[in-house]
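Problem: given the chain below (138 residues), write out its structure.
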Amino acid sequence: MNEDVEPQAGAAGPPPGAPAKEVRFTLPDLPRLRQFAENEARAAGMSDEAIGDFVIAVNEVATNAVTHGADIGRMRTWETNGGDLVVEIHDEGEWKPGPLPGAVGGMGLWVARLLSADLALNVGDGGSTVVMRFSGKN
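Solution.
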């Protein structure tokens, strides 16, 4: 991943016992991943407008994972007890600092942060993980 976000230490993942769905993806799989994300958002009861924002955020982070991180990424989704939808996108690449001043790209995490209710970035020896939370039933 390669964005202008301060990485945090720590583990990510669903709470113990929470049912999570997982899909692994590569760059050519991004259309399938966007469809999976849309289906998850609909199942969580999001409005059409919220679904669009959710899919954009997922696409931005997933694209970063397989273009700046590693050749393969993993996405997991789960719902919170309060009905929010959480998505975790992980790659096994090395963290690289965000875009340089004047860059015309590299704004994916910034966009995802604007569209999500919460975004956390965790990096370490095992790669980079972005966890985003979105309001579920609107």
